Amino acid sequence: MAERIGQIARQLNYPKGLLYGQVAIITGSGQGIGAECARLFANEGAKVVVTDIDAKKTQEVVDTIRASGGKAIAVAGDMLDDNHIKELVKKAAEFGNGKIHIIVNNAGFTWDGVIHKMTDKQWDTILALHATVPFKLVREAAPYFRVKDGEPRNIINISSTSGLHGNAGQANYALAKAGVVGLTKTIAKEWGPQFGVRANTIAFGHIATRLTADKEAGAFIEVAGEKVALGIPSKQKKAQQANAGGVKYADIPLGRPGTATEAASAVLAIASPLSSYISGQTISVTGGRNI
């Protein structure tokens, strides 16, 4: 899909790429969907600011982009740290000679638990990361979006089907991901009329990343010294399959999870001028799940 978008760009008189010259901050872009967004954006001419809590992976993504002839810088750090948000916006503006055009609020992870067993730390951390952090980043970058220079400005907040439909064991994540939908619509209404800023939400379904891999694979993230295991228990996956008559991915009409590249391609499509009249919307990228 990404290659096809590139072909369309050339056909529609964007010979240097759909995002040529635009500066894009992509959070959580050291791996997974975020890293693919960074790569695809750079392929379309964007100057990409890669930021992730994992400094090594952040730099690796930047090195890969530069090796392919793209432009990128690494600004590693924890999005839950207000000082990092300030530094991120400052360095992005310097990289863009005083301009920032795109923010993709993608950073995040899940810390699941049923309602009656969920701790305050689980609740507060996930709401802060998935709802408060996107707001703080947008607020910090406001001076670079509330401008009238005739150049496109675009904010994309990443949500989930958990935010649209709820999900057992994810009360914290579901609330936060529902919240960014309201944040997106508010940005579109406040900054669209005067400044032409577009804001949209993309809600992903089952995308093959470390968050949907088998929990037994051992992926984890550290939160204030505590290791949080990532993924879905294989026992839970098998139970879901059994309930569906043994059919794998029975709830997905396309019959499979999406790839990180497919997910990132959807983000690129919404960020691009091909979607110039789309704003305030929530686009589901699910393979047909939940229809």
UniProtKB/TrEMBL annotation:
E.C. designation(s): 1.1.1.100
Sorted UniProt keywords: NADP, Oxidoreductase
GO function terms (MF aspect): 3-oxoacyl-[acyl-carrier-protein] reductase (NADPH) activity
Pfam families associated with the record: adh_short, adh_short_C2
Catalytic activity: a (3R)-hydroxyacyl-[ACP] + NADP(+) = a 3-oxoacyl-[ACP] + NADPH + H(+)
SMART domains cross-referenced by the UniProt entry: PKS_KR
Span of domain Ketoreductase: 22-194
Coiled coil: none
Family: Belongs to the short-chain dehydrogenases/reductases (SDR) family.
Protein name (record): 3-oxoacyl-[acyl-carrier-protein] reductase
Organism (species): Chaetomium thermophilum (strain DSM 1495 / CBS 144.50 / IMI 039719)
